[in-house]
Amino acid sequence: MQYKTNRLSSVIEWGTLLSTTLIVCFFLFVIIWEIVSKGVSSLSLEFVSKVPSAGMTKGGILTPIIGTVLLTLITALFAIPFGVCCAIYLNEYAENNWLTRTIRASIRNLSGVPSIIYGLFGLALFVQALQFGTSLIAAGLTLGLLSLPYIITTTEEALKRIPNSTREAALAVGATKFETIKDVVLPSAMSGILTGVVLTLSRAAGETAPILFTGAAFYINGTTGYLNQEFMALPYHLYMLSTQHQSIDQVRPIAYGTALVLVIVVFLLNLTAFYIRYKYRKNEN
Amino acid sequence: MRYKTRISIDILFKGVFKTTGFLVLALLGGIFAMLVYNSISFFLDIKPLDFITGMEWAPTAKTPKYGMLPLIISTTFVTFGAMIIAIPLGIGTAAFISEYAGSRLKNILKPAIEMLAAIPSVVIGFLGIVVLSPGIANIADLPNGLNALNGAILLAIMALPTIITVAEDAIHAVPNAYKEASYGVGATKWQTLRKVIIPAAAPGIIAAVMLGVGRAIGETMTVLMATGNAALIPTGMFDSVKTMTATIAIEMGEVPYQTTHYYALYAIATVLFFMTLFANLVGEFFINRFRKYHAV
């Protein structure tokens, strides 16, 4: 082949790959543009500080915001200690035998289980077997279970990065294994663990399927936030406003506003994670 | 602190850490037991073969029919459509990021992919309703655009970040010596990519696709909101479909506790569990194969 045609075809080839990348970026752009351009007009201080009123056609989204914050808090309180302890066991204590390999395999499988199945499990375990009823606590624990495999995996990655010499130094001056983990290993792995935790929580905050049958409510009048009662949450509120509400066209601006707030919450959590990771990498160098 | 107390604290916490490890096993066991237990209750009423091969899903009809074939076909159909869109885009993007993009462009593209992955599925489903649905209705001259095509496009968007990230890792991990050898015999960049890098990264790319498939099969909110949810066997991309996940999500809220219909939804979940498990296991198999070949 001539050199010139060769050069032309290499431009075409480069263009093909570039265009696939541009299409993917275009998807992201459309999603963000649509949500921001149409949601920003409903966004106001009033929107995030007032409860829904007049059959949710007026007012703000304070109730679902409170619900999502509390829900994520319960998820964090349950999944972080549980997940971090499990990661410590796997990385610091467990020997490489069939039992450890089984535990690792089940963690990988758990992270592939569809979120709707976690919803069914939460319904069977928390709502029915443990008699919590459809409630904030049942939904929070369900999301906690969903988050566990991610927290374990990211925490273990962070623990792996701590060199063994660090542990040996602590053990050599007489610290017990637990003291070594508590005072030396965990503090140095903290930023890595935090990054994983925040990313996981941002996922949990946006999940809808697991809370469908475990406690998310169409509408709550008045006070909210009791552990044993149903709650409103941002993702469920968006789902409900866009498919279940009796006057869908009338509430569309509120739906856009809710979507924007949800996306902002998730992106802020992601930015926090990136910031922690960035600072950590800088300190490492 | 006294030495004895320190030792007992040490032993105590070792026990705590170990217990959490076992509780994770119990969690997977619990999910599995729940699925099996409720499915058995269902299969006492309905023959498994009738369930899997039944052509009609009408659990609320006068004579209820529990054939889940339309749901399996719907899920497969939408997932297949999503992959037709997502595989070329995903591999192309992965190849571009890994082989063509400079480091500055990489620093923009990688966070962009992570942003796409971070968007909640309910938001993507919402856009399926407000953007894609009117668009499809306009182009194809339909009353509404809530159909398999809509769901497939949305699922492709949901699966893309997974496919791109895993495929990019695989392409990136191909040893430089392979490329240098290819350039050395006079191959162009494109020829090297197609004939050397992609084949060498193939197990990793297959893994990426299978993990994307697993993600698409299990995705609930987007298909629930965007596919129209008619439990019929689809004949084309413009037909409305009702996937397995959407069926569970819609009907679990309405069904009376411990009825055949209630158990039927758990039986669907069991089939769903095994389908995603299969996709993920195949993905994992290829990732391990890839690691074996390219271990440094």
TrEMBL record, chain A:
Mode of membrane association: Multi-pass membrane protein
Subcellular location: Cell membrane
InterPro entries: MetI-like, MetI-like_sf, Phosphate_PstA
Keyword entries, A-Z: Cell membrane, Membrane, Transmembrane, Transmembrane helix, Transport
GO molecular function: phosphate transmembrane transporter activity
Protein family (similarity comment): Belongs to the binding-protein-dependent transport system permease family. CysTW subfamily.
Name of the molecule in the record: Phosphate transport system permease protein PstA
Source species: Paenimyroides baculatum
Lineage: Bacteria, Pseudomonadati, Bacteroidota, Flavobacteriia, Flavobacteriales
UniProtKB/TrEMBL annotation, chain B:
Keyword Membrane: yes
Keywords: Cell membrane, Membrane, Phosphate transport, Transmembrane, Transmembrane helix, Transport
Membrane topology: Multi-pass membrane protein
Any one of the GO CC terms: plasma membrane
Main localization, broad class: membrane
UniProt entry tagged with the keyword Transport: yes
Domain ABC transmembrane type-1: 72-283
Compartments (UniProt record): Cell membrane
Transmembrane segments: 21-46, 66-91, 112-136, 148-167, 196-217, 262-282
Entry-linked PROSITE patterns: ABC_TM1
An annotated Gene Ontology molecular function: phosphate transmembrane transporter activity
GO biological process, any: phosphate ion transport
Pfam families per record: BPD_transp_1
Role noted for this protein: Part of the binding-protein-dependent transport system for phosphate; probably responsible for the translocation of the substrate across the membrane.
Family recorded in the similarity comment: Belongs to the binding-protein-dependent transport system permease family. CysTW subfamily.
PANTHER family: PHOSPHATE TRANSPORT SYSTEM PERMEASE PROTEIN PST, PHOSPHATE TRANSPORT SYSTEM PERMEASE PROTEIN PSTC
Protein name according to UniProt: Phosphate transport system permease protein
